[in-house]
Description:
Blueprint (H helix, E strand, L loop, with lengths): L14 H7 L2 H4 L3 H17 L5 H20 L11 H13 L12 H37 L4 E6 L2 E7 H26 L1 E2 L15 H7 L4 E2 L3 H6 L2 H27 L7 E2 L18 H24 L13 H24 L2 E2 L1 H10 L4 H9 L5 H18 L8 H7 L7 H5 L1 H6 L9 H15 L1
Parallel strand pairs: 3-4
Antiparallel strand pairs: 1-2, 5-6
Helix pairs in contact: 3-4, 3-6, 3-8, 4-5, 6-7, 6-12, 6-19, 7-10, 7-19, 10-11, 10-12, 11-12, 14-15
Amino acid sequence: xxxxxxxxxxxxxxxxxxxxxxxxxxxxxxxxxxxxxxxxxxxxxxxxxxxxxxxxxxxxxxxxxxxxxxxxxxxxxxxxxxxxxxxxxxxxxxxxxxxxxxxxxxxxxxxxxxxxxxxxxxxxxxxxxxxxxxxxxxxxxxxxxxxxxxxxxxxxxxxxxxxxxxxxxxxxxxxxxxxxxxxxxxxxxxxxxxxxxxxxxxxxxxxxxxxxxxxxxxxxxxxxxxxxxxxxxxxxxxxxxxxxxxxxxxxxxxxxxxxxxxxxxxxxxxxxxxxxxxxxxxxxxxxxxxxxxxxxxxxxxxxxxxxxxxxxxxxxxxxxxxxxxxxxxxxxxxxxxxxxxxxxxxxxxxxxxxxxxxxxxxxxxxxxxxxxxxxxxxxxxxxxxxxxxxxxxxxxxxxxxxxxxxxxxxxxxxxxxxxxxxxxxxxxxxxxxxxxxxxxxxxxxxxxxxxxxxxxx
Length: 457
């Protein structure tokens, strides 16, 4: 097939080179954006008198028909075309003849692909934000369900202080809320139109870039035509945001995997989001969480791919930049699938409160509260700390927990201990006493839930 760019060369390339050069196998997913961008371009050309209005109307109507035919499956992509732009232009000229050849006036594939990619990613980020908000709502609902469920909080993966499961879950809701904020701001920065930059130097035609940008719902136009075609900062920024989002899902996955193990048994995952073993009939594997954890590395790789492609590129457009799409498309697909499965997994997840509370008691995570009890009676904290540590060591040796140690034994360590010590070390009391802003008391968790629900509205 003769190439659209034939002229300076014969337009005949080796099949191996053709296949290597072609991008339609992956950029065809931007057909909607390519056609909508071309419609706006035709309207702009007519508005400034570069083509006749009747010609623009013919082009726009034909492009609309092509879009409908692609959506319905009436026509298929021609994989012998070099890219989606060439395919659309080829079908257009087949349908309306020479008028279709006027569409590419005052633009280049360089600014056209930059436009398509921004429009495509703008739509995809909107969908991803919606999915993240749905996950936040699911996590928040689960946090409300378990806002008073006692569990051990950890540092260094060692039992540290008593918290509620709802409080722990809301930490992830806060992370995801920041992801929404980052994605929203990235999308805003991305929403700048490059069309009209042409190959790199602009055009001699008296075009109206602002007309086209407004028609396509951009916030403005790129101020420098070289930057317009060579900028892929928005891809790097989105991939960075995606990597951070996946990191949050991965951390959450790691805890779900631990919590669902027999060693913890804090939660039970639904059968719908686990798998079994081909040889061990007792197994119930948290494969969805493991896959989200694993796919995080894949999205990190997409980010590194994009950074590496761009790191040594001179201005302006280079064919290397064709490599932007596969990595960013892969990241988009991976993030969307991960969010979907994660939301379902969390919504059907059940806590096992008795196991959480038992672990909290056996972990002596109320030892700080025991020290605080003595401190509030006038003992220096460091002295109280030492006495509390000695009591914990005794309990471990003799098989007690702080709640069951007899009062007379407490008083052997110090005469300040009285019957009110049992209230001080009661885990529910320990949690409810933590009323500082953002802390783990039920009222605080309820406040966090309210904040998050307002934010995602």
